[in-house]
Amino acid sequence: MRELLRPPRLAPGARVAVVAPSGPVPEERLQAGLDVLRGWDLDPVVGPHVLDRHGKLGYLAGTDADRAADLQAAWCDPAVDAVLCARGGYGAQRMADLLDWTAMRAAGPKVFVGFSDITVLHQAFATRLGLVTLHGPAAAGVDFLKNARAQDHLRATLFAPESVRCIASGGTALVPGRARGVTLGGCLSMLAADLGTPHARDGARGGLLLIEDVGEQPYRVDRMLTQLLRSGWLDGVTGVALGSWDGCGPYDELRAVLADRLGGLGVPVAEEFGFGHCAGALTVPFGVRAELDADAGTLTLDEPALR
User: Fold this and answer.
1) pLDDT in tens, 15-64
2) Fewest CB atoms less than 10 Å from the CB: which of 52, 59, 164, 168?
3) Annotated active-site residue in 116, 169, 189, 244
4) Is 49 marked active-site?
5) Which phi and psi (to 5°) does residue 111 adopt?
């Protein structure tokens, strides 16, 4: 697995576009998120369809075509320095094939931020554009709006990425040891659902896998990890960092599943790493070479996430 191209960091006055590739966005949360971004001396602009709701499928922020058009227009606008997702939810899979990846590649590198359902786009940006992306808070997400740690860590990653080259979670080792590789991952359920699709990674060989999820019972986590194992997708992975598992059942029960399914890989596994669907979620980059120290609960990047 190769390192990906690192986009330029942001500077004061940078224009950032907010789009909604997946679920519908509450207007009051969007406005609050825009206020935070303005407080960082950024110039946020909003896609035309961000506040849309699909006429029949209420879990979508407008039609697939409109959500794709917003993302593509933002990415291909030379005045836009970064694209931030307003939220996750569901829907990115439905619009990923509607994007003109050739045009987006020609637009050049820029920052892309999101998590949860946006895992589908993290994979596509890696395979189609060859770009480092940021698994970080949604611009209209409750955690981003309410939690200083989530805001501060994303802000540091965007403006001063060298200051957060060591991402320390304070977590513990499920399987001790150190490992090196190129970071990848996201929401476990989306990685499993993305298997075999046109824009998904072929596998995690040579990679440090960072995974998390929300609202999935232990047997469902077992099923998804088993699917990745049986498909060969986890063959050659060098290490695993486990983020948050909010609403995934009693942690002792879930921990037994994680140990059972991941322990046989023979690689270090760090748990409770503090990214994903949790309070104060850390921003982690995908596509950079790093070292995972499971015992210390640290992920140290060889280079800053952004140039």
Assistant:
1) 999 999 999 999 999 999 999 999 999 999 999 999 999 999 999 999 99
2) 59
3) 116
4) no
5) -80, 140
